[in-house]
Amino acid sequence: MEDFVNLTFDEMWEKFAACDRAYDGLFFTAVKTTKIYCRPSCRSRKPKKMNVTFYQDILEVEKAGFRPCKRCRPEADHSPDIGLIRAAIAFLMNHYRQQLVLRDIASYVGISSYYLERLFKKEMAETPRNYLEKIRVDKAAHFLRTTERKNLEICYEVGFQSPSNFYRVFRRLKNCSPAEYRRRSLSS
């Protein structure tokens, strides 16, 4: 199983700056000046961007000489099923462009679709489908901020099958249309 995710430094920084709990366990934020590493959701004061390094594996970050944060305790798993959830999330992060059904994710992690959905809801407070939509919208927002691609190109690039669904989900999660989001990000 490949539990690593393909995120750029800037994408990981955004998730860390936003204290996004959904990315906990997928990567760790190490602060060079303090030699401490945290979860993406850590509420501690944020360091300067230039002092941060990201690691995908807890063993790798500890081998590099960083110690765990005492506030967010990134070394502690809070649930016995967190490994399955991390594997499912990594699968979603790495395959978000594809048309996925719950059965694909469940077979990847080796459990039934019903059990995966129930477990995912319990641990993440949302369904795998909603989580996948969030990943796709986050990627679309990143493209809207950093590229000149048209909304329709971005829609298909991030894995949405129809523009109407893309616009509906984007508006629900970002409280604005993709065009409004691009205008706001350019003006900031």
Automatic annotation (TrEMBL):
Record key words, sorted: Activator, DNA-binding, Methyltransferase, Transcription, Transcription regulation, Transferase
Gene Ontology annotations of biological process type: DNA repair; methylation
Molecular function GO labels: DNA-binding transcription factor activity; methyltransferase activity; sequence-specific DNA binding; zinc ion binding
Superkingdom of the organism of origin: Bacteria
UniProt keyword Transcription regulation, yes or no: yes
Annotated source species: Sporolactobacillus putidus
HTH araC/xylS-type domain boundaries: 86-184
Protein name per the record: AraC family transcriptional regulator
Any Pfam family: HTH_18
Keyword Transcription appears in the UniProt entry: yes
Cofactors: Zn(2+)
Membrane-spanning residues: none
